[in-house]
Design goal:
By secondary structure, the chain is mainly alpha-helical. It is 76% helix and 0% strand. The chain is built from 3 helices and no strands. It is elongated and about 70 Å long. The chain starts with a helix and ends in an 11-residue tail after the last helix.
Length: 88
């Protein structure tokens, strides 16, 4: 019984250390992204933000705006809601 209790404590400590490392890595990654965005804003380099917006709007790689509009028209005709057009 004592041995199992010690094993559980050891596992808990190992889990906490691993969790702390993951949290620190996520915070560092988020900080790098913030710095990159801050740098882009300072330089007025909007290409990064334009790329993000186009990926969010267009979705598929290589698709053109014409493809997107054609798809929207088709989905509306079939009465299928596009996730970007839902009202809530």
């Amino acid at each position: 019984r004592q041995r199992r209790l010690e094993q559980m404590r050891e596992d808990a400590q190992k889990h906490e250390r691993h969790k702390d490392k993951r949290i620190a890595a996520a915070e560092e990654h988020e900080q790098q992204i913030e710095e990159k965005e801050k740098e882009m804003r300072a330089k007025s380099d909007q290409s990064y933000f334009r790329e993000i917006r186009s990926k969010a709007y267009m979705g598929d790689e290589g698709a053109t705006v014409a493809d997107r509009l054609k798809n929207q028209r088709h989905r509306r005709a079939k009465n299928l809601n596009d996730p970007l057009e839902r009202d809530g």
